[in-house]
Specification:
single chain, 3 strands, 8% strand, Multidrug-efflux Transporter Regulator, Chain: A, Domain 2, alpha+beta, 106 residues
């Protein structure tokens, strides 16, 4: 009889993801192991936009710590903070304006 290696699955019981994720970036295979999913599912999440990842080459992705945490424990991730400064003066003199019609060179 052939012995088969048992695949590692997601940890059982409550996990403190904030302290467990100690690196800046993770591979799709590592995230799949954390989540108890197949690596192709993680790649599908990346391609569909559900999971943010940095594309290093045609077949290599790295997933930032914050994106992994957002997938595994979304309640731990704070929403982004926007700072409004209504009294700030905006200088638009050097802005890249679209030329008015008729287009130059026509």
């Amino acid at each position: 009889m052939i012995e088969r290696e048992v695949a590692q699955t997601a940890p059982t019981g409550p996990v403190d993801w904030a302290s467990t994720l100690d690196r800046s970036f993770y591979s799709p295979a590592e995230v799949a192991r954390f989540a108890g999913l197949h690596p192709s599912t993680i790649l599908h999440y990346i391609h569909s936009g559900r999971l943010y990842a940095v594309k290093l080459s045609e077949r290599t992705y790295r997933i930032p710590n914050r994106a992994v945490l957002k997938l595994l424990a979304p309640e731990l991730v704070r929403p982004p903070t926007f700072v409004e400064r209504p009294d700030e003066i905006v200088d638009i003199t050097e802005a890249d304006f679209e030329p008015e019609w008729p287009w130059p060179g026509e």
